[in-house]
Amino acid sequence: MLEYIKLMRLNQPAGFFLVFWPASFGLLLGSDGNIPWHLLGLFFIGAIIVRGAGCIINDIIDKDFDKHVERTKNRPIAKGTISVLNGALFCAFLSLLSLTILLSLSKEAIYAGLSSVMLIVIYPFMKRVTNYPQAFLALTFNMGCTIGYLTLQPHISWNFILLYAACMFWTLGYDTIYGYQDRKYDKKIGVKSTAITFEKRPKLALSFFYIMMITCLVYLGKIEDFSWPYYFFIALAALHLSWQILSLDTENPQNCGARFKSNMYLGGLMFLTFLLTSSMS
After folding, report:
1. Confidence label for 72 from pLDDT (cuts 50, 70 and 90)
2. How many domains does the chain have?
3. I need a labelling partner for 64 at 20 to 30 A (CA). Which of 75, 84, 158, 197 fits?
């Protein structure tokens, strides 16, 4: 049982929170002031399940890479404590659970959810073919935002596009930081990442990603005519992101890991921002 907990990364909650937060933002933006508590709970469970299934797919495809990376060599499939077949069967079970949740949502949300399946499967291959796999991850990881919004709204709007863009730039930033944990191993085995692409100017790249994120959120606030508390919390988020960049040591994997994980709490702050804004509208 412990090995399956590790396989789903239940012992590493930052990942499923980073899947859940964008979904919650989409739900709250589309709620028109009526906070959908039951859907937030359902999406939280869904985020855990979908993230677990995604991790298994990633581990099966990357098992030969993971064996050569210090941080990932003890993952169950790479280590051999869970076979590829058993991992695939468990992934199928989780996928069925997530499908059950998806089918309880709106037609538009179901279509968005089904379209994300191919993205989840393709993502692990992106690090083999592009120097910007984090961009594909940003597209994939934030599909929950689309599903959440379309659960309550019949079509995509400009305010949603700004929110989705903000989440994508956020993911580009924090997953680039995440990539610096394994950069030296990735270079040896031929894995590509933005951590390698921007290794000479990491803080400049991160500054661009995070400035674009905050700009999208500010513009969203103007379109939605949010009141001053929204901008206060966005300013706090900007301060936290500045701390991530200024204190980042790309040569220290522990430093990078801590700054990556801090985004779980930043997401919580943003969740409170949208929750407060929704309750006041």
Report:
1. confident
2. 1
3. 197
